[in-house]
Amino acid sequence: MDDKDLEILRILEENSRLTADEIATMTKISLKELENRIHALENARVIRKYTTVINWEKVGNGEVSAIIELKVSPERDFGYDRIAERLSRFNEVKSLRLLTGTYDLQLLVTGKNMQDVSRFVSEHIAPMDRIRETATHIIMKSYKENGNTLFEQQETERLPFSF
Amino acid sequence: MKDPISKRAYVIPPSGIRKFFDLAVTMEGVISLGVGEPDFTTPWKICESSIYSIEQGTTSYTSNKGLHSLREALSRYLLQHYNLRYNCDTEIIITTGVSEALDLSIRAIVDPGDEVLIAQPSYVSYGPCVTLAGGTPVSVECTEADNFKINVERLEQKLTKKTKAVIINYPNNPTGAVLRGKDLEQIADFVIDNDLFLISDEVYAELTYEGQHTAAAIVGNLWERTVTLNGFSKAFAMTGWRIGYLCAPQKICEAALKIHQYTMLCAPVMGQVAALEALRSAEDEKNAMVNEYRLRRNMFVAGLNRIGLQCHVPEGAFYAFPSVKSTGLSDTDFAERLLKEYQVAVVPGSVFGVGGENHLRCAYAVSRKDLSEALSRMGTFISQL
Q1: Which residues of A touch B295 (CB under 8 A)?
Q2: pLDDT, tens digit (0-9, with 9 covering 90-100), for A25-83
Q3: B19 membership: H or E segment, kind and range
Q4: Complex ipTM tops 0.85
Q5: Cβ contact (<8 Å) for B35 and A158?
Q6: Which of B163, B193, B202, B291 holds its CA 20 to 30 A away from the CA of A3?
Q7: What is the CATH number of domain A3-43?
Q8: Domain A62-141: which topology?
C-alpha cells in the first residue's frame, strides 16, 4: 500500500462510478498500472464493494433503523468474535462494532417498520446465549451518513466572474 | 459645475469584462470558469471558531498591525512552510485581503514619476494601483515559450533610471506558472544589481502541485528588498473574510503601517480570528482541497488538449491558460461566443495585459461534474467553428 493506492482509494470512496480512464487522467497514473492496482486492491479485499449512498428517508418507504447496544459475556478463547460473527449473519444487521464503555457490541438494524425491528430484537437477538442486556434506540432522523450530509444545503451565490 | 472626477480616477481603466459580467448574470444554466476563488466553503472549524468569538463579544478594533496572536502564529507558519523569517512585532501587518497589502506596499515604495515593472499577463490590480500611487506601470511580457516565467532579458529591456520596483506573482494568476529557485536567483541578481525593490504576491503559494513553493525573499539577498504578500483567501477558501498580510523589512513595514492606520485602521477582527484558527487546525482540510485542485487540473488540462485547445500544464494556482490560436478566433470573440452560444463563462486572456492575448483563463476551482460539462460544451463549440 503506497501513496498512489491511497489516492485511488480516496477517489473511489468519493465516487465509485468514475471510469478507470477518468481516474488515470486525474492521477497521471497509466491506465494499465491503474487497472492492476485496482485489481490488486479488490483481490486483497481492501475494496469490498462499490456502493451508493441513498437517503432512504427521501424514498419514503417507511423503513425504520435502530441502534441496538448489547452487553455480552465473552467466551473463553474467542472473546466476542464468535457471537459477533453469528450476529453479523443476519441480513437485518447493517453494521456491527465492538466498543469500549457501558455496552460491548453496537448494531445498526433496519426493518420494514417499528414492529419489524422490535420483533427482530426480541425474537432473534435478545434470546441469544451470552447476551445479558439490550438497549434499543430508534433512529428518528439522519443528518449525516459516512461523511455525506443528508440535509439540503443552501446554494451560495457566486459571482460569474472575478479576477 | 466643476468635473467631480479626479484625473487619476479617469486614467485607471474600467473592468475589462464588465460586458461579459452583465451578460452572464442575465443567462440561465451558465457554467462559470470565470471565477478567481475556490468553490469550497470555508472549513467549518474556521467558521465555527469565528462565530463563537462573535458570541463572546469579540467585535472591536484590533491593533493596527492585527491581532498579536495571529501575527505570532503566522510568523511560525511562514518559517515552517517557506523558511521565511519575519518578526511578528515589526515585520508583519495583517491587511484587509491581499488587495490592501498590495496597495500599501506600492504606496510605501513608489513616488510620483517612479516606474514599476510588472510581469504580465498578471492580476488586473497591479497597474492601476501603481497609477493611483502616481507611478508609471511598465508591462514586461512573459511568453508561452518561457512557460510564462519572467525572463530577465525582457526585464532589462524595460529598465530605466526611473525604475524603482518589480511586481511578480507566482504561482501566477492567470497562467498557473511557478518560479523555481534558479529562476528566482536570476531575478535576485537583476533586482540587487539595479538597486530595485521586489513586491512578490504569493497568494497562491499553497497551491503548488509539483514540489514546494519557493518564496522570493529566501533567495540570495532578496529579503532586505522584498515585500512578501500573501493571504488566506485561496489556500483556505476564505475569500469573503478578507484577510491578507504584508511582510517586509521593518523600514518598509513602518511606512506601510502609517498608510494602513489612516486608511483601513485594521482588518476585520472576525476574519482575523478565523485566520488564526485556519493556521492552528485547518492544515488537513487545506491539503485535501489542494489535492482536489490537482486532480481537477490533470483532468481539465488533458481535456482541453483533447478538444484541440493547446494548454501547457499549470504548476500552480487553479487556472488553465489555453491558447485559442488554432481556432482562428481572438480570445475575446471566442469567450463572447462561448458564453452566448454554449453558456460557458471564461475570461479572455487579453484582460490580463501583454502576453495574454489569444489565451483564455479558465478557473478549475469548479466541481468535476461542471468541468466535464464545460469541456463537452467547449468541444462542441470548437468542432462547429
Answers
A1: 11, 26-27
A2: 999 999 999 999 999 999 999 999 999 888 888 888 889 999 999 999 999 999 999 99
A3: helix B18-24
A4: no
A5: yes
A6: B202
A7: 1.10.10
A8: Alpha-Beta Plaits (3.30.70)
